[in-house]
Design brief:
- This protein is α+β, with helices and mostly antiparallel strands and about 130 residues long.
- Helix content is about 15%, strand content about 25%.
């Protein structure tokens, strides 16, 4: 399901877990142009721009490691997608396991005490 990559470009596979709450998750693999030092976030952005605009993920800044918006699981390890390097042999990317899934790689990262429902429930108690 990847967009064409020219024959002269080196590629690497990135496998992304897809799905939403109530659905059986599935994996989709995309071949992305690979270069040394390329981040997992670079690869996901490439996929969404060139191969599949429906891939859901969140990020706010690139290579700053400050916002925590791009946290995902890469090969089972929790990382920042903006600082984790895409393996030349490929990487498997999924949502954070300990957070509520919204869709694809997007999870609810708001701390429970800052969640609007929690705040409104606390206010209703008096």
């Amino acid at each position: 399901m990847s967009a064409p990559v020219t024959n002269s470009e080196k590629t690497a596979p990135i496998t992304i877990q897809r799905g939403a709450p109530g659905e059986e998750p599935w994996m989709e693999t995309y071949d992305v142009p690979w270069r040394p030092g390329m981040s997992v976030l670079d690869a996901i952005v490439w996929v969404r721009t060139h191969a599949d605009s429906s891939v859901a993920f969140r990020y706010s800044c690139v290579s700053a490691n400050a916002c925590k918006e791009c946290m995902v699981a890469v090969n089972g390890k929790t990382v920042y997608a903006c600082t984790e390097r895409l393996s030349e042999d490929g990487s498997e990317v999924g949502p954070l396991k300990n957070k509520t899934l919204i869709r694809d790689l997007v999870t609810d990262i708001v701390p429970p005490k800052e969640n609007l429902r929690t705040i409104l429930a606390e206010r209703a108690k008096g």
